[in-house]
# Entry
Amino acid sequence: MTALQRHSTVFVGGALGVWQVERCDTICGPVLPTVERVAVYEDDVPSAASTGGWVLRGIASYERYVHRAEHEALAARQPVLGRPSSRCAALIPITKSAAWWELTQDERRAILEERSHHIATGLAYLPAVARRLYQAHDLGEPFDFLTWFEFAPEQAQVFAELVERLRATEEWTYVEREVDIRLTR
Ligand code: HEM
# Structure
């Protein structure tokens, strides 16, 4: 195992895994092949798991943009992953354009929050939705981010509304690849 892999999370699309794929929609950019199931591994993937399909790796990392008050608000509301009621999940891998990465940190923060209200909007959907963001831009992966969400089946419509609101923001004009994979277990 290399140092790079040590704390990574690996999503394997194929025939195995507890998560069954209900839909796989390419929102923009190149398609990701539709698979039957998604398995999630920490660090190493058992060799038997890599059966065709795709392998996406990311790292749950520190917060880049969050201000202290937002951090506290998130911590107070965000539920843990793996709640028994969370029988639905979404894996939404996203890549942003070179124009995004050429901006400075404060310019990106202004777009993400002051102008697109990503955090404020998202906060309103907690604790219905549990989330984790995996960073992959520096790993040479096909996507910059692997975003993961879990919720109860009766919250699926609420989650759809959240995604629609975010996709309508200025921040999303920088998204050049997005695949929306909906899962159940
Ligand atoms: C469930 C409610 C949500 C909350 C509370 C939330 C909150 C956040 C926060 C706090 C960050 C900044 C992390 C940092 O400081 O590095 C972030 C980043 C991000 N979120 Fe969300 N989010 C939510 C939903 C979503 C959804 C539904 C999507 C995808 C459709 C999404 C995609 C992303 C992406 C791609 C980033 C990385 C942005 C970047 O670093 O350029 N989020 N989110």
Observations:
- DSSP finds five helices and eight strands in the chain.
